[in-house]
């Protein structure tokens, strides 16, 4: 049994902030390589930032989701890809904590274990003696090439002719990586496609996805922990929303860093900072970032309060968790867009960070679970008294 250092939320946020110079320095290389540099991965590991969702008995921090939001926001302020990859590792790490305790003993035997994964059921699982054999491919798997384990979702036929989506844990060494990540945004996340061909997964590393989404977890030792007795989807929402918040803050930093000495070409203003237009732009962007913070923190505080009290989520609260995530992403994107538009033609050069921040927040807003439009529709549907049209609540 390992013992974690007793880092507070403030300690972990400070560690993330101290990594900013390195993350900024490596951000362009991450884009060019289409994955985080090994130096970045090593620095994140040494700072303990992959252990926020690891149980304390394995040397982790068992952090609450408010800590995840604040740490991811600090990382995102330096590099969106580093923040997103770290946050995505937190979600499958949480999922691993739902498996039977002997499975966790195996997974968390690796120091600073990194677990990638997806919630898309794009594989097929065939029942065999002792487990399942999985075939399939999963896209958008962030950080796969630097991960040790992979959470896969596959569809398993049932005796009554139906299909059951299952969640399973496989070592990355059992899967193949397809190097197909060549995108406009979040390029450094290395969100490649992974492939399983006749991969055997023992029964103890397989859970029924509908049961997991309803909170029927298999771990006994984690059952009383506030960090692990909350639903998966609100946890996933709170784990990932901090990156959007960090990108909005990064845009503000980037804009004000370049503001001194800038003019407004083809106007009479000798300084952009003197123009009323600029005043409106920075005020509007800052207020939108403040609003994004409200939704991100309300989401995290709901998850943490429910976990601490051991209370069930209502259907409306589950839907609101996704709506808060979507609202934070939309507002952060709007803030970035305003500041990017105010940054002038010179900001399109690749050595000016605002162009990368803009591409990153656009890519993030298109993520199926973070998309503001679909999350609003779901929330409105529940508010109107209709049944949800998705399992992902």
Descriptive report:
The protein has 393 residues and is of the alpha+beta class. It folds into three domains: 9-107, Butyryl-Coa Dehydrogenase, subunit A, domain 1, CATH 1.10.540; 115-208, Beta Barrel (Butyryl-CoA Dehydrogenase, subunit A, domain 2); 232-383, Butyryl-CoA Dehydrogenase, subunit A, domain 3. It is 48% helix and 14% strand. It has twelve helices and eight strands. The protein has helices at residues 9-18, 20-33, 38-46, 65-78, 80-96, 101-107, 209-213, 232-258, 276-309, 315-341, 353-365, 372-383; strands spanning 115-117, 123-128, 131-141, 149-157, 163-171, 176-178, 192-202, 206-208. Strands 1, 2, 3, 4, 5, 6, 7 and 8 form an eight-stranded mixed beta sheet that branches. The longest helix is centred in the last third of the chain and has 34 residues, at 276-309. The relative contact order is 0.12. The model has no long low-confidence stretch (mean pLDDT 96).
Main sheet record:
8 strands, mixed
Any idea what the shape is? globular
Name the CATH superfamily classification of the largest domain.
Answer: Butyryl-CoA Dehydrogenase, subunit A, domain 3
Report the end-to-end length measured between terminal Cα atoms. Answer: 34 Å
Short key terms for the protein model shown above:
Butyryl-CoA Dehydrogenase, subunit A, domain 2; 393 residues; globular; 12 helices; 8 strands; alpha+beta; 48% helix; Butyryl-Coa Dehydrogenase, subunit A, domain 1; Butyryl-CoA Dehydrogenase, subunit A, domain 3; 3 domains
């Amino acid at each position: 049994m390992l013992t974690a250092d007793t880092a507070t939320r403030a300690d972990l946020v400070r560690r993330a902030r101290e990594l900013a110079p390195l993350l900024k320095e490596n951000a362009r290389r991450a884009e060019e390589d289409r994955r985080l540099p090994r130096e970045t991965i090593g620095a994140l590991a040494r700072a303990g930032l992959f252990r926020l969702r690891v149980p304390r008995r394995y040397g982790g921090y068992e952090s609450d989701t408010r800590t995840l939001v604040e740490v991811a926001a600090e990382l995102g302020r330096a590099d969106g890809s580093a923040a997103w990859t770290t946050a995505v590792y937190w979600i499958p790490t949480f999922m691993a904590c739902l498996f039977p305790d002997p499975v966790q003993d195996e997974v968390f035997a690796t120091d600073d274990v990194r677990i990638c994964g997806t919630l898309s059921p794009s594989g097929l699982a065939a029942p065999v003696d002792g487990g399942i054999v999985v075939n399939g491919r999963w896209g958008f798997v962030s950080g796969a090439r630097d991960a040790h384990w992979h959470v896969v979702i596959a569809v398993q036929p049932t005796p009554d002719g139906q299909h059951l989506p299952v969640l399973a844990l496989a070592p990355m060494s059992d899967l193949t990586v397809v190097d197909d990540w060549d995108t406009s945004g979040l390029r450094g996340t290395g969100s490649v496609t992974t492939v399983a061909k006749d991969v055997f997964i023992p029964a103890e590393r397989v859970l029924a996805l509908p049961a997991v989404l309803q909170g029927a977890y298999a771990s006994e030792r984690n059952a009383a922990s506030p960090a692990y007795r909350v639903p998966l989807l609100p946890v996933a929402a709170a784990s990932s929303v901090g990156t959007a918040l960090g990108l909005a803050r990064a845009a503000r930093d980037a804009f004000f860093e370049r503001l001194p000495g800038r003019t407004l070409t083809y106007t009479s203003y000798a300084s952009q900072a003197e123009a009323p237009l600029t005043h409106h732009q920075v005020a509007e962007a800052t207020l939108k970032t403040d609003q994004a913070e409200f939704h991100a923190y309300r989401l995290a505080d709901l998850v943490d309060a429910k976990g601490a009290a051991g209370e069930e989520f209502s259907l409306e609260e589950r839907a609101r968790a996704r709506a808060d995530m979507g609202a934070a992403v939309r507002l952060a994107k709007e803030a970035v867009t305003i500041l990017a538009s105010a940054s002038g033609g010179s900001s399109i050069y690749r050595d000016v960070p605002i162009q990368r921040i803009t591409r990153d927040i656009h890519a993030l807003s298109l993520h199926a679970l973070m998309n503001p439009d679909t999350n609003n529709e779901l929330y409105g549907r529940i508010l109107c008294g209709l049944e949800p049209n998705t399992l992902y609540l």
